[in-house]
Amino acid sequence: MKALLTPLTLGRVQLQNRIVMAPMTRARANTDGTPGKLAAEYYGQRASVGLVITEGTQPSDDGQGYPATPGIYIDAHVAGWQEVTAAIHAGGARVFFQLMHAGRMSHPDNTPHHRQGVAPSAVAPGEQIFTLAGMQDIPMPRALLTEEIPATINEYRHAARRAVDAGGDGVEIHGVAYLIHQFLALSANRRTDRYGGALQHRARFAIEVAQAIVAEIGADRTGIRLSPGFTGMGLHHGDEGPDLYRYFVGELDKLGLAYLHIVHYGDEALLSDLRKLWHQALILNRPERAREDFGKDVASGLADLESYGQMTLANPDFIARLKAGAPLNTADRATYFGSSPEGYAVGYTDYPALHRS
C-alpha cells in the first residue's frame, strides 16, 4: 500500500501519488456536449488521487455513441471543461482527457447530426444501445472510405489540442470497445485496403491516430488504454489476439508515449510480455481487484500506477480512506448513468466522505 502513495513523474507532470481515477462514462453532460452543472464538483471531490482520467469525450459529432456524453472539439466544450480542470488541479491531481470515438457503438438518435455510426466495416455489433426513447437495436454502421480516414484521424488530433486548451495535462486514447478497437478486431474489420487484413494493417489506424496526437501535443502528454482480454460488443481477434497486442504495443512503445493503461482480464503471460515491451509508465486496472491486493502491482514492479473505477466513483475521499484503513462506500450501479428521479446529484456528488458519513 505504501508504494501507491509515493509520487511519480508521468510525462511532463508530477503526480502526488500513483493512484489513478479510471475513466467512467456518467452520461450527465448537457445536450451540446458541454460538461454538466455538477461536473467540476464531481471531479474536484476526487482530486486527491494522482491522476484523473476523464470520462470518454467524443472528438466529433461522428464520435458520439451514447446520449449525454461530453465532447471536446468546439469552443463551448473547452470553456465548460476549463472549470472542471481547474477544480481537479485545485485538489492537487493532474488530468488527462480520454478521447473516445464510439464508432459503430452508436445510434442516430444519440448524435447531433442524426447519422448512422461509422466503422471500419459495415458490420453491426448485434447489440442494443440506450437512447432517450429507450433501448434500441444498433443499426448497421457505414464503413469509412479509405480517403475519409485521414479526416477521422484529424478529429483525434484536433480534440487533443482542444483538451490541452481546456486545461488538460494530456489525453488518453480510448482503445477498448470503440473505434480504435473495432479496427483491431477481426470480427469488426473486414477491410481489404491498407487498414484491414493482416494484424499489422489492422493496427495501422490506431498507430496513425497516436502519431497524429504526438505530433500535435507531444508524446509526453499522450497515453493509450487497451484491454487485450476484452471480448464484449461483438469484438474478437481469433487466435492471433496475443500476437496482435504484442505487435501493437511494441509499435506504440517506439513513440515514447507517457503511459500505457491496461484493463486486465487474466492472461498473466501476455501481461508480462507487454510489460517487457513497454518502456514508459504502465497503469494497470484489475476490474475485480480485492482490497487486500491494493498496491501489489506497483510494489512488484508490474505496474507504475494502479487505476480504480467504481471505488473512486463511490469514495470521493478514496485516498483518505486508504490511509485511515476506513471502510469503503459501495457504488450504486442504478445511478451510474444519467440523473436519477431523486435528483441530478444522486449517485454523482452525494457519496459521503469520512467527515460527513
UniProtKB/TrEMBL annotation:
- Tell me the domain of life: Bacteria
Entry-linked PANTHER family = NADH OXIDOREDUCTASE-RELATED, NADPH DEHYDROGENASE 2-RELATED
- All residue ranges annotated as the NADH:flavin oxidoreductase/NADH oxidase N-terminal domain in the record: 4-329
Descriptive protein name: Alkene reductase
